[in-house]
């Protein structure tokens, strides 16, 4: 069931239902320090899609984090795949503030986002999952600071959770070549703001993928539209919890059962058949580098072994297949291992104070 709703351009902050009295801070209360940019006097249309299924514990926070952006030219689409929890009551509560609300069974997250993308009329596009949050002022920043020549505007993302010490994920070194070759790069989808027409131009979201569809989309997008602008701002919060796909899949003891990894081979098969020869070759190299990179991470995480021995093993193995292993990631891993022999000055000072 699709409901197209009309949202007034008046201040959303004054019309969104007040949160329960025991809820404080963002996104339960507006961030008064996040004011519209004077540069955005005629702000561009921005489309945000939230796919949701039985995320009633978090859905209201997500919706409020979008609505309380107080952005006047927002198209906000929520696609619920037939939830059976309290999501229905939450959607009823906020339906008058949504541009489009779809309530019907779907084939999963990628299918839900694709439904929203099909209705998108904004200049910029992103999706915010129903357990994540936009940070205050994000939409105003995208509208006012994205250079006209930029194809993709990126912000950093804070990872958080009940048992997680918050940390930042940065979008860095993003290009189709770097991603396919498994070079040093990083991306976090909630911090990526696409040009809507370019997403449609590169083929949109592949509904047949359930785990790596964001990686697949980004590679295809950057293959045609490579100009990226990096912002130092934090634009979203990515929540880790017991039912997160990231937690469930990467928490498995058997890597062969990780559905992200299993799907990645299928994605590369598809991309190698459709992209240019140079990018297809980059992907074939990336297939070889991926297990090498995983091995480097294990060596770095092994605190029981000698760092010097580990660094030596990396260097020796790298010599056997230099085309695959001579990378900045390899060099950085060796340097990080050897740096463990360097005692920080602060530690020396602290130890001296202890002895005194």
TrEMBL record:
Residues 47-173 form the Glycosyltransferase 2-like domain. InterPro entries: Glyco_trans_2-like, Glycosyltransf_2, Nucleotide-diphossugar_trans. This is Glycosyltransferase 2-like domain-containing protein.
């Amino acid at each position: 069931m699709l409901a197209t709703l009309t949202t007034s351009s008046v201040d959303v902050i004054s019309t969104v239902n007040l949160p329960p009295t025991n809820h404080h801070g963002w996104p339960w209360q507006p961030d008064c320090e996040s004011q519209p940019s004077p540069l955005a006097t005629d702000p561009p249309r921005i489309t945000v899609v939230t796919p949701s299924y039985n995320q009633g514990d978090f859905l209201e926070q997500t919706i409020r984090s979008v609505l309380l952006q107080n952005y006047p030219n927002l198209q906000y689409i929520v696609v619920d795949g037939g939830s059976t929890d309290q999501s229905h009551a939450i959607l009823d509560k906020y339906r008058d503030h949504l541009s489009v609300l779809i309530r019907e069974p779907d084939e999963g997250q990628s299918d839900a986002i694709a439904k929203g993308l099909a209705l998108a009329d904004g200049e910029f596009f992103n999706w915010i999952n129903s357990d994540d949050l936009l940070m205050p002022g994000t939409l105003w920043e995208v509208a006012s600071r994205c250079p006209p020549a930029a194809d993709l505007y990126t912000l950093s993302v804070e990872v958080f959770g009940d048992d997680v010490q918050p940390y930042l994920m940065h979008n860095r070194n993003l290009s189709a070549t770097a991603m396919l070759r498994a070079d040093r790069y990083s991306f976090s989808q909630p911090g990526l703001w696409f040009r809507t027409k370019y997403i449609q131009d590169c083929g949109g979201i592949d509904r047949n993928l359930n785990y790596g569809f964001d990686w697949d989309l980004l590679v295809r997008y950057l293959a045609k539209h490579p100009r990226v602008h990096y912002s130092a701002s934090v634009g979203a919060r990515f929540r880790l919890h017991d039912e997160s796909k990231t937690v469930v899949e990467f928490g498995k003891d058997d890597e062969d059962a990780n559905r992200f990894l299993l799907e990645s081979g299928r994605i590369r098969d598809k991309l190698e058949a459709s992209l240019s020869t140079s990018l297809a070759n980059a992907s074939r190299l990336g297939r070889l580098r991926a297990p090498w990179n995983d091995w480097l991470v294990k060596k770095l995480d092994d605190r029981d072994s000698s760092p010097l021995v580990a660094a030596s093993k990396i260097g020796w193995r790298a010599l056997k297949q230099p085309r695959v292993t001579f990378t900045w990631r390899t060099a950085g891993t060796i340097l990080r291992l050897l740096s463990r022999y360097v005692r920080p000055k602060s530690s020396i000072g602290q130890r001296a104070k202890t002895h005194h």
